[in-house]
Design a protein that fits this description.
Layout lengths: L1 H29 L2 E11 L2 E7 L11 E4 L3 E7 L9 E2 L4 E2 L9 E7 L4 E6 L11 E7 L52 E16 L2 E8 L8 E4 L3 E8 L10 E2 L19 E7 L4 E6 L5 H6 L3 E7 L9 E10 L9 E3 L3 H5 L5 E4 L12 E4 L3 E10 L4 E6 L3 E5 L9 E4 L1 E4 L4 E7 L4 E7 L11 E6 L18
Parallel strand pairs: 1-4, 3-9, 10-13, 11-19, 12-17, 18-22, 21-29
Antiparallel strand pairs: 1-2, 4-7, 5-6, 8-9, 10-11, 13-15, 14-16, 16-17, 18-20, 22-27, 23-26, 23-28, 24-25, 24-27, 28-29
Length: 478
């Protein structure tokens, strides 16, 4: 019997040891660590994650993999200095932002379900600009855990609402419509230097309301450039060190890939340059062409360049520079405080604001156009967009001449009431002033007046009752 008890005791010890080893094995499997290192970068104008080391070395937006029960550890380093992060929303894990070239961050999370998922950067526009990869998990879920929705999606059924935040004050980003170079004298072709600087700035969108604009040279639109056909433009594109995005420029006046955008994808703190010959006279739009291109344009990165024909333009007393654009905010039109961009609304082509020269009231309360009776005015008008076509009209005036689609070498249309200008397009209109008063610049899709799209042309001088006479009465919509 003593032997039997000894045997039983030995068996119990063995069972305990086996059970302990079994439990230890499960814990080891559960704590298996899978590590990846990624760096941010640019590839053919796209923002990307680039794999570092192992089988993903050098791979753009590499496929990452793991097993259910693994602990995943991701290290992200900024390769180009642009602010980024990395998010695995299905596992409720988002890293801190990396800011500045060479900075790093790390996240880790337990993998509790199998399937195919996405990882991406949550900074607005970066996912759309290319920063998205796939994450594949093998195995069955260890517990029923509801998956989270992708971050950044707008799910409000009632749409944007007016937010009454604390009144905010920002920088004046409005380009004065008189801020443009004078006509060029007759001369031989020469090289003209063009300096552009990408500036991300909190600007005044409306009374009490600010927005983070992306600009050329701190204003919307960017500078108006004036060259002569046959000139060579030497473009210098700078990007401030505190920018959160790379920026670039595409000149519609340039003959060559990307209009220069392929040579000017410029990270924060750097400068790029290219030269191009102005072959075709006309009035042309330029804009940022860094992905997502529409986002950069909507945030204010557009302007115009005039390529004068050899003989120049006919003289006029006044010239003005006006551009139409859209602003897409999460908060409804009329909100106060600092507003945020809404990428989904941009993709849906559903702006909250439509503006001339960057802001509500830009050309009414702030910097209206001014002229005198007897003068002829010329308006260089363009649409930055990025989405809406304009039906440009001046209430109470008729365009004596319209250079349709900004073709300066085609015969001008005469006696035109309203002219159509597509996004990324332009026109030049001229008309004489016979009667004093306030004339309103509009897009004749007139509901857009309610979203900020109006400007004033204020004309001073003697009355002209032979042309216009009567007694004003209240209640006019103009």
């Amino acid at each position: 019997m003593k032997i039997t008890y000894k045997v039983l005791s030995l068996l119990l010890v063995l069972v305990t040891l086996v059970a302990g080893c079994s439990n230890a094995g499960k814990e080891e499997v559960a704590s298996n660590v899978v590590e990846y290192t990624l760096t941010s970068g640019m590839d053919n104008g796209q923002m990307v994650y680039i794999g570092v080391g192992g089988g993903i070395d050098g791979v753009k937006n590499p496929m990452l993999s793991a097993y259910v029960g693994d602990l995943v550890r991701i290290t992200l380093t900024s390769g180009e200095g642009v602010e980024h992060n990395i998010s695995f929303p299905d596992f409720n894990s988002t890293s801190a932002n990396v800011v500045g070239k060479g900075s790093s961050t790390m996240i880790e999370f337990a993998v509790d379900k199998g399937g195919k998922f996405s990882y991406f950067c949550t900074i607005p526009g970066h996912r759309q600009a290319g920063m998205e990869g796939k994450f594949e998990v093998s195995g069955q879920a260890v517990a029923a855990v509801p998956t989270s929705e992708a971050q950044g999606s707008f799910t409000g059924a009632t749409g944007p609402i007016v937010v009454s935040g604390a009144s905010a004050t920002g920088a004046d980003i409005v380009r004065d419509p008189t801020e443009l170079p004078t006509p060029l004298p007759r001369r031989e072709p020469q090289t003209v230097r063009i300096d552009l600087e990408a500036v991300e700035i909190e600007g005044q969108l409306a009374d009490g309301t600010t927005y983070t604009y992306w600009t050329f040279n701190s204003k919307v639109p960017g500078p108006f450039f004036r060259v002569r056909v046959g000139d060579t433009i030497e473009v210098h594109m700078k990007n401030l060190t505190n920018s959160t995005m790379p920026h670039s420029v595409d000149f519609h006046a340039v003959t060559g890939p990307g209009g220069g955008a392929t040579m000017t994808q410029t990270p924060p703190g750097e400068e790029t340059t290219f030269t191009a010959k102005a072959l075709n006279p006309g009035l042309y739009v330029y804009h940022c062409a860094t992905p997502m291109v529409a986002q950069h344009i909507a945030n204010g990165m557009y302007g115009m360049i005039l390529v004068e024909p050899e003989e120049g333009l006919s003289p006029v007393e006044r010239e003005f520079y006006v551009m139409q654009g859209e602003v897409y905010t999460t908060e409804a039109f009329g909100s106060t405080g600092h507003l945020t961009e809404n990428i989904q609304a941009l993709l849906n082509e559903d702006p909250e604001y439509l503006v001339f020269n960057g802001a509500v009231g830009a050309l009414t309360e702030q910097k209206p156009l001014k002229a005198n009776v007897g003068e002829t005015v010329r308006i260089f008008f363009g649409v930055g967009g990025p989405n809406f076509t304009s039906s440009f009209h001046v209430i109470g005036e008729i365009f004596d001449r319209v250079y349709e689609q900004a073709s300066l070498t085609s015969p001008a249309l005469t006696n035109v009431q309203t002219t159509t200008v597509p996004p990324g397009g332009a026109t030049m209109v001229e008309f004489g002033l016979e009667v004093p008063g306030r004339y309103i610049l509009v897009d004749h899709a007139l509901a857009r007046l309610q979203r900020g799209l109006a400007g004033f042309l204020i004309v001073e001088g003697p009355e002209n009752p032979e042309i216009f006479n009567g007694t004003p009465v209240p209640g006019s919509g103009h």
